[in-house]
Amino acid sequence: MLLMAITVTGASTLTYFVNDSFISGQLSTASSLDTGTKSVQLLAYDTRDSTTLLQVSNLNNKFGDQKLCGVSCSGGGLTDKIPLNGGTEFIMIKIKNNGINSIFLENIKLNNVVHAWDSQTSGIALNTLQDLSSGGSYPHDGTFSIFSESSIIQSTSNEIPNGNTVNLLIKLGSEDDDILLNKGIKVLLNIGNLNPVEFFIDSGGAQ
């Protein structure tokens, strides 16, 4: 009887420690996987076929063509031109990093098409009044730039410090299909985590 009691007690103690360790491990793993998604908040977006996207002066799409122009506006010598001159159009997204650490936005996928950060915009004031070839400054076709709420100086890196709210300016490129208005756009922000941050927004909408 004494031997059986010792055996039962030992087994119970071992089971407690194994289960406690397993549960703690699971919670830790789940937390680390979910951190990226929970830390990035979508505050606003503007995908209108219109002017002054997210109230940024002179940031205009070509009003009246009832679509966001991608591949059909990327050829014929129009590459990198502003939309009003026949170039591809813009999408604006405002996000906030709610995490305790900086995040590094490696790329943005729109409907599974990858858009890299344009390092040529680093430290330069946004200028969408002119084409790049004429002194303008904005992301090249198929890329994006980052700038804060309070300034149009584009970021010197793809880092978004903790607590910061930034605008992401994406210029459609030759691999982006034209997006008809009222169509959904799947947005994936690759912040170097196992799980990218995922949003769905409406083409032609602003929020």
From TrEMBL:
**Top-level taxon of origin:** Archaea
From which source organism is this entry?
Answer: Candidatus Nitrosarchaeum limnium BG20
Protein name per its UniProtKB record:
Uncharacterized protein
